[in-house]
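protien #1 (seq + structre)
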Amino acid sequence: MTQNSNDAAAPTLLKRIGMTALGVGAAGAGLAAISALLGRDAERKVPADGGFVEIDGARLHYIDRGTGPAIVMVHGLGGQLRNFTYALSELIEGEHRLIVVDRPGSGYSKPKPGTNPDIRAQGRLVARLVDKLGLERPLIVGHSLGGAVALAAALAAPGKIGGLLLLAPLTQPMDQVPEVFRRLQRDSALSRKLIARTVGVPMGMLTSKPNLTIIFAPDPVPSDFGTRGGGLLALRPGNIEAAMHDIFAARDDMDAITRRYGELALPVSILFGRGDRLLDPELHGRTTAAAIAGAVFEVIEGGHMLPITHPDECARVLRAVLARIDR
């Protein structure tokens, strides 16, 4: 009896599929191991700078220095607290109590296990941090995506936040994610996790230099941004996954946040760089300032990373909005 050719081919095809699956699995395991190793190297070069506080199951890494009227600083997408301690914090530390915090999933902060807090949830965590530390009507400084979180905090805790300083902030819904972040745009939680733990770190390293050039433009990228500015910590699997989730969450949350701008009754200042290549100063600055009673909008020469590249201008506007807070 002659064997059917399709029957004969089936074991061969199954074997090939099995070998391919093993190869893909081995490659994925290898990439995951390399990513974990690179992540540990980044942590060695950029260790934690502060202490930790537990809030609603999240473990937040923060620095708390000085005395006087309190200021809380919240960094942007893929950033961490060294984005502020690079240059801005030293200009104001002697005058105020300064709290600089890593957002959950970024830097050394961890969200509550099994959760990925969206922008509004991160805002509530900042408001709870204010309570936990016993701060009286602090100024919240938010850079980039941290601006959206700062706005969410003020909306979550009316009367508890004294004022807002928003530096190159995300404040409006966006039809498109900035080009440098589009590789991080994934709707599926599973795909975000897989990408972050396999190809995310190597791809991030390969594209880091050209992407940073765009993020800082027209200002130059400081040669020590990776260490002194904390940039290396963005190239860790957990941080990449958190950034991917933040992009996903911002798409939905910004609609809800912008609808409530008329409720804000506190001093708000918005500062943008005229050459910002990530966020449009007119949309995220002027349009938002017009929707918030008494908000002040200012544009200076510069790009997106104002706390690092233009700390003196940031400190000037910070002092001005502090003077408007009713103590």
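ok now protien #2
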Amino acid sequence: MSLRGWCPGALRPMMSGDGLVLRIRPHAGRLSVAQARAVADLAQAHGNGRIDLGARAHLQLRGVAEAALPALWAALADLGLLDQDAGAEARRNILTTPIHGADETLALVAALEEGLRTGPDLPAKFGFAVDTGAAAVLGGASADLRIERAADGLILRAEGMARGEAVSAAQAVPRALEIARWFAARRGAETRIARLGLAPPLRAEQPPLTGAVLVPGATPFGLCIGLPFGQIGAQDLHRLALAPLRLTPWRSVLLEGVAAADLPPGLIRNAADPLLRVSACTGAPGCASATVETRALARRLAAGLPAGATLHVSGCAKGCAHPRPADITLTGRDGAFDLILNAGPAAAPLRRGLGPADIPDAIRGSLAPRL
């Protein structure tokens, strides 16, 4: 069954301008070499040959035909990448730190997956983060409940709380599920715990230890590679799958244990690459909500970005690729662009009706008083 405008899954794909969008949630945000190469083959055989990496470290295949779904589902099930039903798939909304080592992380994720398999009934966007490496690094990503590393062990923290409740590794998942059930019983029409207006029954005891996010280059865990706009072609994913891949929420992948590699051209190897500060959604014609092309324009504008500035090119005001504010936002509307500064894609624009050729001068003129 396909739905338009739904938050897609593998079992509940969403119709878009270029066909169905099918979302895959790898367990613990990790793909084996065989899984990565098989997903690349599926994208080539049944989609448009491109794979998107989302902000919660999931993968999306685009351009899928309805007739291809049975074969895709069978292949994903064989790969261990398909849930038992759509409800279990939606509940398994877990973001896993990519910088874990010999710690509790993978065991916690497995226990949380098992607990969510049969409930509680939660909104599709309600999410968990298991951020239990040496320090918490997922604070910039969306999550309603977080299991994190603190100075004296683990904590459970709800979104909106600066401190969390101290828990042991054995207590963390049962306590997270208990708070999730508490939310489910009280939420009404609300979908996020921070907007509920009620403080969750958690003790505010310790803050998380915080660390830096991964950037492209060598890391103690392997080689980090950035994907421009979070997208990679099937053939490039095949070449990249030299080792198990850890997916990140920063539009990058980590090649476990790899120190250096001969990489496909076009991927981001350098932490200073301006493309790391640019977000762009699929845009037209791939997305039915967009009236403008986005990614080619974003790539052209990247080199001229002021130092440190962020840019978001959005096909419409929904801002799927980057719903938060950016220094410069270009929002598509009726075939042209609105220019917005220091806000999200639905904010009031400074300039309206810009064509692609007008945009560089409009940005320079608008930023001049601020530089």
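The radius of gyration is 21 Å.
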